[in-house]
Backbone:
């Protein structure tokens, strides 16, 4: 991050997405969806499960729901601790000020309790982001982190640009600085949701993180492109597309497309893309992804067996508890 405001460009496509998101929010608010307690619970579970899955947490939506209810689950202790921490953070985040360093550090402490030796404190050493056996990004020197974070928080507290854009810019800049030893991804996504919620309260119940998980490879590619370009424009464009899909999800989730219903009819246990293609009688992999798998993933009906590696050769897909309920006609 350079001195002064973070570098980014607002393109005509971005302005179109902002208008479309505002229109979708208006429809959702008019329908009273933010008052639907059942939908709010489902989306909170999706949000937490999606954000943690990006970081390699293997808990399912059903297991997150069980933990949310205060019941025990059989799962790795670290995964359970991460879920408990995230539930507490998302329960409290609406009380925090997006421009407050104290609140940011408190949020990190809650998210990383019992996971780090010193949660709630900036890193004191070097940090590198690894992926697929190579270094994707090296964070700025630890000595620069306090100043860089002070500048970023000051900017988010004073900018007059649209929150849909600035929250996405913050998201990228936060990941670029990588101010903590661990937990940067989940905190960056939570803080973007906080900024959006301060703009429109509906975002407290919109599963943006779940859709980021469904588009995980595109998410990382947008971050990579932003780093290569020296500005956050690519990630802003990606996040606006994802936010638009997330805002539409609560309204459109009950209206399952014919393609997704066909996917329901053939999905048996855990299946690979090739197995699904054969079962559907299709030959076009692009069509399978765009018309069948992606809508099912975005709606929370289907999940990956390896969400940490979306393009893994041994990747398979299975119905979520919500998908089972919709397929059986009980939801």
Residues:
């Amino acid at each position: 991050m350079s001195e002064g405001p973070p570098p980014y460009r607002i393109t005509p496509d971005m302005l179109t997405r902002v208008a479309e998101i505002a229109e979708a929010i208006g429809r959702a608010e008019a329908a009273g969806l933010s008052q639907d307690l059942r939908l709010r619970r489902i989306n909170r579970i999706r949000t937490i499960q999606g954000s943690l899955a990006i970081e390699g947490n293997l808990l399912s939506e059903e297991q997150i729901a069980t933990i949310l209810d205060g019941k025990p689950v059989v799962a790795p202790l670290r995964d359970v601790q991460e879920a408990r921490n995230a539930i507490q953070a998302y329960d409290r985040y609406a009380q925090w000020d997006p421009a407050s360093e104290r609140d940011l550090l408190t949020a990190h402490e809650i998210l990383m309790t019992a996971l780090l030796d010193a949660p709630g404190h900036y890193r004191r050493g070097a940090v590198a982001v690894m992926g697929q056996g190579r270094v994707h990004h090296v964070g700025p020197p630890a000595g620069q982190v306090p100043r860089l974070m002070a500048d970023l928080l000051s900017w988010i507290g004073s900018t007059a640009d649209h929150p849909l854009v600035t929250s996405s810019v913050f998201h990228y800049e936060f990941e670029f600085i990588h101010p903590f030893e661990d937990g940067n991804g989940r905190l960056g996504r939570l803080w973007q949701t906080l900024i959006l919620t301060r703009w429109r309260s509906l975002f407290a119940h919109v599963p943006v993180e779940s859709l980021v998980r469904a588009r995980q490879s595109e998410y990382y590619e947008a971050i990579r492109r932003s780093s290569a370009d020296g500005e956050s424009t690519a990630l802003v464009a990606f996040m606006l597309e994802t936010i638009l899909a997330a805002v539409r999800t609560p309204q459109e989730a009950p209206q399952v497309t014919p393609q997704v219903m066909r996917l329901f009819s053939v999905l048996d246990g855990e299946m690979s893309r090739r197995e699904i293609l054969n079962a559907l009688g299709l030959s076009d992999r692009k069509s399978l992804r765009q018309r069948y798998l992606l809508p099912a993933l975005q709606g929370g009906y289907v999940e990956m067996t390896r969400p940490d590696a979306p393009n893994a050769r041994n990747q398979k897909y299975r119905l979520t508890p919500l998908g089972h309920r919709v397929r059986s006609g009980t939801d």
